[in-house]
Write a structure and sequence with these properties.
The structure holds 2 protein chains of 2 kinds. Chain A is mainly beta. In chain A, 6% of the residues lie in helices and 47% in strands. The termini of chain A are far apart. Classes of the chains: A mainly beta, B mainly beta.
């Protein structure tokens, strides 16, 4: 399967088709239209169910994986479209520059990408995996641990992936063509079921905030939910803002971040309980892509109950916690 | 309908934000709201100064110059110039201050992926958000646990000390499991590298450990479990527990009263808690094995409600309050020496290790100078001598931190890393500067050796970034392949130190 990607952003990381460097009169990154083809890596494994224990670094899921000879911590980031390696640890890898993007200053930098011979995750082996190389030292420094990279969405697209924060465990189920688990369907009670769709390896959910249609992206790399700060008044009427801060982001940009609680979130039939949220300007998403995105759902959403993402049926399922016998 | 929404909001507000400065008036509009079209701020007209100040802080409203509004009933010119409008709202109890979106808000920018391949909110900025949300990314106590003392509490002993640094972990049962891993602070909480061996009745794994506190769990076929036979547990930072194991380094023996009913060890290390550390009965008397941190500790035994010094330990001192205690040291004694000054009336050792107490560590005259034995754990310390009241750096120590007169001698106890730079025979000065010394550009001077330059140093567990400064020129460590980019695009060398 070929995915034509230009620039790959993690969560909100949609990619752009045919974007031209026309959008130069504002602060949005200029994206070049170099086409990029990334194959979904094909997992090889023996069992129908793979269990991956994880530890939490803050609210980030830290899995152990091996990339060629390097074995260590990787963050599960469903917001990243594919494998991302921390440049510090993989400098020796030959890189090719596949795309370019202009930053705020109009400078041009390259997307460095490389080909990894083998990735091992639990009992799963992937061969010939394309990966981006980026500096992840801020992430690493804030966690105080060596972090080799991010495990992005396309590594998991042939599975049903279940995330259980309480058990600190990822379960990957092998699926048949209809999306049923080969290990047998579970007896666990389904609490909620939400359809999703993929757009350029970004997992999107349509929902509502105070009955106003919203499009969210699902991102295990988001330690807190984030909403765009320019939503309609009606939608924001169910968001309680409790404080406001001005942060200094990269490039000394002053960025407004509001803190609050989002109530009134509905994802299809699922009335989501109130969740903490940060509200900030996510204009890039709405403007750089044809697809509008209003917010990202992260840890506070994914930890409501054990949750699974079935990439064949395109359904997110929350499961009732099985009582211990 | 509107009223209903506001009531709900008011209640939720109180429920979710106890700290909130807003009055719990059920009809109160939100203090701060931002929509696609405008940003709206409501300030109670009768807000008292303290209330107003806390609203300004909570919502970063400094630029609105609200005290001026309260004084004059008008917006300050600069606030109006920034695009804000004031609505006095007649008799309503709130000022409404609003600004249409897009007006003069260029100073507030968007998160921007400055580097291709990054998420739309770059990881760098996500960390700021995480901090703002009050999420703590890393607790060193899980990876590098420390303790002053500790004893193990078993249902059944599941870690055996085999002597030296060898410790054997045993998980009883789980005989039908396919694979069991051990994960803990001693292996970076690895999840799939340290497989236990199947033995009769369970699983075992031999792990070298230094004396001290260690945290661990087992992973049985992918499922985390704390050691079921270890009663010593601590919260794991989420919703479960880690098992705690202390690798011992100290025995206390008390054979004076073999017929006592109960004997406890009490000491400075456990804040003199009286019934916490019971001794076990032995053939000759009583004994307790435990972990005790490096350093000097005062202690006594309490046998059947009476206190006893350690009869086998000749070192005892009074504590100034009429109690006499036995003293013991864990770790190697350093002998800190000052050569010369034999005519001086008094010499004290003063340093970071005793909070720069000027009259605590009196040195003794010995031979051609002055000496004091002192026990310190591994680390980096600074010190000076005080000779007849005058400060003096150690003339025999080439390592000095800071510039005169604020210079101190540098004491590295049990260095665990040597900064080494090969070559540069013609260089005049080589300095190492890193996050471990706040990037100080003068303190840590390397000494010239036959093949280059070096400085033995102690680095705490964790990540360290550094560079060499060779005759004023910053350079990455040429012998270290691990480096990360810095804000100047020149890179910093990186060292990860494990305990």
């Amino acid at each position: 399967m070929h995915w034509l990607l230009v620039i790959i952003f993690g969560c909100l990381g949609l990619s752009v088709f045919g974007q031209t460097p026309a959008d130069t009169n504002n602060t949005i990154a200029v994206l070049w239209a170099n086409e990029r083809q990334v194959d979904d890596p094909v997992p090889q494994y023996a069992s129908n169910e793979i269990i991956l224990p994880f530890t939490l670094a803050g609210r980030l899921i830290m899995l152990e994986a091996r990339v060629d000879t390097m074995r260590g911590n990787f963050i599960l980031d469903t917001g990243a479209p594919f494998l991302v390696l921390n440049k510090s640890w993989f400098r020796k890898y030959g890189t090719m520059a596949v795309a370019q993007a202009g930053g705020i200053t109009g400078g041009i930098s390259e997307v460095m990408t490389t080909m990894v011979r083998e990735v091992q995750l639990g009992d799963i082996i992937y061969n010939q995996v394309e990966a981006d190389l980026i500096e992840l030292n801020h992430l690493e420094n804030s966690r105080g641990l060596p972090i080799f990279g991010l495990l992005g969405l396309n590594l998991f697209k042939s599975f049903e992936m279940q995330i259980d924060y309480d058990k600190q465990q990822i379960r990957l189920f092998r699926l048949d063509k209809k999306g049923k688990r080969l290990s047998g369907q579970p007896n666990d009670k389904v609490l909620e079921e939400i359809p999703f769709y993929l757009s350029n390896n970004t997992l999107l959910i349509d929902g509502e905030l105070s009955s106003v249609p919203m499009r969210f992206c699902l991102d295990s790399g988001a330690e807190v939910n984030v909403l765009h700060n320019r939503l309609p008044k009606k939608a924001m009427s169910s968001v309680i803002i409790t404080s406001r801060s001005i942060l200094t982001g990269t490039g000394n940009r002053r960025i407004e971040v509001l803190r609050g609680t989002m109530t009134g979130t509905a994802l299809h039939k699922f009335k989501v309980p109130p969740m903490p949220v940060l509200i900030t300007h996510l204009g890039n998403m709405s403007r750089a892509y044809n697809l509008r995105i209003d917010g990202m759902l992260g840890y506070d959403f994914l930890s409501i109950a054990p949750v699974s993402i079935n990439f064949v049926t395109n359904k997110i399922t929350f499961w009732e916690v099985a009582t211990q016998p | 309908m509107k009223v209903l929404i506001f009531i709900t909001l008011g209640i939720l507000h109180v429920l979710t934000v106890p700290l909130h400065a807003q009055k719990s008036d059920k009809t109160a509009p939100p203090v701060y709201a931002c929509y696609d079209e405008e940003t709206v701020i409501h300030i109670p007209k009768k807000a008292k100064k303290g209330e107003l100040d806390s609203l300004i802080e909570l919502f970063s409203l400094h630029e609105l110059r609200l005290p001026y509004l309260f004084e004059t009933g008008k917006l300050h010119d600069s606030t109006a110039l920034a695009g804000w409008n004031l609505d006095l709202q007649g008799n309503k109890p709130f000022y409404k201050i609003s600004k249409a979106s897009g007006i003069n808000d260029n100073d507030l920018q968007t998160w921007l992926p400055t580097k291709p391949g990054e998420p739309l909110i770059p990881w760098e900025d996500r960390m700021l958000i995480t901090e703002l949300a009050g999420i703590h990314g890393f607790d060193p106590a899980f990876f590098y646990p420390t303790a002053t003392y500790g004893i193990n509490k078993w249902k059944e002993v599941s870690v055996k000390h085999l002597g030296g640094n060898r410790h054997l972990f045993f998980l009883k049962g789980y005989e039908n499991a396919e694979e069991v891993f051990i994960s803990g602070s001693f292996n970076g909480w690895s999840k799939g590298q340290y497989a236990m061996t199947r033995v009769e009745g369970g699983w075992e794994y031999e792990q070298p450990l230094t004396p001290g506190k260690h945290l661990y769990k087992f992973i049985v076929d992918g499922t985390w479990i704390a050691d079921p036979n270890n009663e010593s547990r601590e919260r794991d930072g989420y919703k479960s527990f880690n098992s705690v194991y202390f690798a011992y380094n100290k025995d206390f023996v008390f054979n004076a009263l073999p017929s006592a009913n109960k004997v406890f060890l009490i000491g400075s290390f456990n804040a003199w808690r009286e019934q916490e550390l019971p001794l076990e009965k032995t053939a000759k008397g009583w004994r307790i094995r435990m972990y005790l941190a490096e350093g000097t500790h005062a202690y006594r035994f309490k046998a059947d409600k009476k206190y006893y010094l350690d009869p086998d330990n000749p070192v005892s001192l009074t504590d100034g309050e009429g109690f006499e205690n036995s003293y013991t040291s864990v770790g190697d004694s350093l002998f800190i020496k000052l050569v010369g000054f034999t005519d001086a009336a008094e010499v004290f050792l003063v340093g970071s290790f005793n909070n720069w107490n000027e009259r605590e560590l009196r040195m003794k005259k010995a031979g051609d100078g002055w000496i004091i034995p002192y026990v310190l754990g591994p680390g980096v310390y600074t010190y000076k001598f005080r000779v007849n009241g005058n400060w003096l750096t150690d003339p025999a120590n080439p390592y000095v931190w800071g510039e005169s007169p604020y210079d101190n001698s540098l004491l590295i106890v049990k260095p665990n890393h040597v900064f080494k730079l090969d070559g540069f025979a013609d260089a005049k000065h080589v300095i190492v500067s890193g996050n471990f010394n706040n990037w100080d550009e003068t303190s840590l001077k390397l000494q010239k050796t036959s093949s280059g330059w070096e400085l033995p140093y102690y680095l705490a567990p964790g990540k360290h970034t550094y560079k060499f400064i060779i005759d004023g020129v910053w350079q990455k460590d040429p012998s270290n392949k691990l480096w990360e980019q810095n804000e100047y695009d020149t890179g910093n060398s990186v060292i990860w130190k494990t305990p």
